[in-house]
Amino acid sequence: MYRKTFHGGVHPKDQKEYSRNASYQSYLPKGDLIFQLNQHIGKPAKPVVKKGDLVLAGQVIAEADGFVSANIVSSCSGKVKAIEKRINVLGTSTQAIVIENDGQYTLAEGIGQETDYHKLTGQEILAKIKAAGIIGLGGAGFPTHVKLAPKNADQIQYVIANGAECEPYITCDDQLMRSKASEIVEGMKIMLKLFPNAEGVILIEENKPEAIEAMQKACSGEAKVRVHAVHTKYPQGGERSIITVVAGKHLKLGMLPADVGCVVDNVATIYAIYRAVCKSEPLMERGFTVSGDGVKNPCNLMVKIGTPFSEVLEAAGGIKEGADVKKLICGGPMMGFAMANLNAAICKNNNALTVMTEDAVETAHEKMTACLRCGRCNQVCPLGLTPQMMAAAAERRNYERYEKKLYGLECIACGSCTYVCPAKRPLMQLFKQTKAEIMAAKRR
Q: Is 268 helix (H, G, I), strand (E, B) or coil?
């Protein structure tokens, strides 16, 4: 019997009402498309085109450079305008391929060719997934072909589809499960072909009844795939939380999911696997939510990878009349990144733009006091860490204690501690900065 919840966590208002019932609309970009070369965890992809080259939609324009890396595929047809540094969602500049979109979206040869995955070997399936450039679309961005090739494939007991979508405002996965349930189930069955001793579990929070119903219907008659509805609590979509709920196992610090017999992928990733293996379609587009109290028409879009954020905001009607927008967030308010401008382009692991008329961080800063030592941050941490002590070590730059004694590098930056802190201390921001400094020192 699967569990319904996990240790810790918080209950922010889900704010799904803005776009919950907005069906997918396809959006075709109007201007240049920008493809960052580091859209995934691991080494950036290596360009295989040059300025002036003509490319087709579905054509590989940058190849995986190493084991943990991923192909990048053009989502339009047109001419390579430049290979140069362009601004990204974090506000820094990184190398990118810029394509002048001809508006025709002419497909490369073989795209759309149907394949019976039952006739493919496991290695052939993995090769298709790798060629398609699929990564974790829930935000982590780990190359999928690497995740699906653990050393202990026969020991995998659970292949878990993450349909929790616990981040406030975001609803693109909810709509994907409602509209593409059968395709997601087929994608799950493709994954199960790689893990003969595993069962498939589709985990969905209870605040998505339509998605639960659609997925249950698609699973009807499937012996090895089932839906598991869980309590609505943040961060239910975290890998460790999911494994605790489904497998009843604690993923110890430093372990990988495969070490406890689990493989976890977002439902959007699994849908992309289906499209790549059965339809010979590489990863060219993804579901994307534009939401918040500052946008005119909150919506769910199927957007081309490389589309500028400015265009998707325009597709949602732009800023709501009379709204005084204080913050633009790539993603949601708990784990997303504040954006200085919308010139950056959508990467594979970007799933939302949230437009807000209130800046909770600014408000909290005005009310911040010294730590009250109330222990609430410790109670809600889903990993069982001690944010109060981590913050003290980080502020003193005692990085040895932070990493070795307090396991601070295991923090998933979910923001639960910051959310409940009555002293309004920016704990998550401090932990992100500390981790970045420690990792930079390690690289040096």
A: helix
Residue stretches of the chain with pLDDT short of 70: 1-2
State how beta strands 337-338 and 327-330 pair: antiparallel
CA distance between the termini of the chain: 48
pLDDT at 140: 80
Backbone angles phi, psi at 286, to 5 degrees: -155, 160
Q: Give the burial class of 270: count Cβ atoms within 10 A of its Cβ; 0-12 exposed, 13-18 middle, 19 or more buried.
A: buried
Give the distance from CA 189 to its chain's centroid: 21
| 21 CA to centre of own chain | 21
Helix (H) or strand (E) holding 94: strand 93-101
Q: Which residue has the tokens 């991923």?
A: 70
SS3 401: helix
Check residue 138 and give its pLDDT. 87
Q: Which two tokens stand for residue 389?
A: 């002590």
Task: Give the pLDDT of residue 70.
Answer: 97
Whether pTM exceeds 0.85? yes
Report in angstroms the alpha-carbon separations of 175 from 179, 294, 295.
6, 21, 19
- 105: which 2 tokens? 């979206």
Cis bond before residue 235 (omega within 30° of 0): yes
Element (H, E) at 95: strand 93-101
CA dihedral of residues 118, 124, 125, 130 (deg, nearest 10): -160
Indicate the burial class of 36 (C-beta count within 10 angstroms; 0-12, 13-18, 19 or more).
buried
Nearest C-alpha neighbor of 425 from the set 380, 382, 392: 392
Nearest to 171 by CA among 137, 202, 208, 200: 208
**Residue the block writes with tokens 């595929």:** 73
pLDDT at 1: 52
